[in-house]
Write a structure and sequence with these properties.
Length: 88
């Protein structure tokens, strides 16, 4: 499976304990990656760089980028079901 930035196919890339999760409007990066001065460290940093470079190329090639997209929290605000109840 090839990771194509912003093509939401429910895919993610794992580099050690770091996860890069794909989405249509945002890419989430979370976890931990420890880069050591060894061959595994070199492989890990090259893999991370390849993903970051692919994301940057996709953004740079986008003709109409908005200043900022709304966050998931802003898009899913719901009224509290407890605001009009008497809880005495």
């Amino acid at each position: 499976m090839s990771f194509i930035p912003f093509l939401d196919a429910g895919e993610s890339v794992q580099i050690d304990d770091l996860t890069i999760e794909n989405g249509e409007e945002r890419i989430a990066v979370y976890g931990r990656l420890e880069i050591r001065r060894d061959r595994i460290g070199l492989q890990d940093i090259q893999a991370l760089k390849a993903q970051v470079d692919a994301i940057a190329r996709e953004l740079e090639g986008s003709a109409h980028l908005p200043e900022r997209v709304r966050s998931a929290q802003q898009m899913s605000v719901m009224a509290s079901p407890f605001t009009d109840r008497n809880c005495a």
